[in-house]
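Exercise 7.
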Amino acid sequence: MLILLGSTYVSGEHTQQGKDVWFHDGHLRYGAAQPLAEGSCGLPMWTVVKPESQVPDRAFVAAHDTRLCDGTVCGKDIYVSMVAGVNGGVSVGKTWFTRTDGMCASLAYAGEGMGAGEECRVLTMGSSTHGASRFEWAPVEAFGNSGEGTLGYNRFVAPKNAMVAGNDPVDHGPIYVCRFLDDHGEYLVGQTWFPRHDEACCSAEFGGGEARGQQCEILVKKAC
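Solution. The predicted structure, written as tokens, is:
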């Protein structure tokens, strides 16, 4: 179930599963989770979570948001989430643990913020060494041609080894994981596609709406 959340914020101014990752429907490990950061090796997989879930073991940490609070304690690690349902495809967003809003993912699509509230998947790194990969962030920028007052199309393409995490079969094709720094110096995690025609390179949910970054990083997968 997807729930529309809210407006658009610009920083600095859909039925194929993600083909690059394994799917895992096993039990989540509570209480002893060991999140992993950029450069960690493992077998990329999507682990099922629900709104009441705690962080899965070996979940990939994509960012940290100091503005998310539990009572008087602020600061949450941000994880890559995936949810089915937009345009009959698979979209990419973000989540954190534990959540108290009844959602298991937050994502941006078509200028709006959305929340998923039944079942989502979180990017994790299995401990298997067979076919192991490591994640890195590759910087990209949205470029446009200006001529006679008309802003042209963006011309950037997917970085080499960019991980396909979803698909929009109607509008955009393959969907990739991205992140960018907002005006407050916090990374927002979201999704993107290539090429883009809106002078942005990443779309993420923030404050119930959509935030867009013109300079961003794309998650790439490399051999260990």
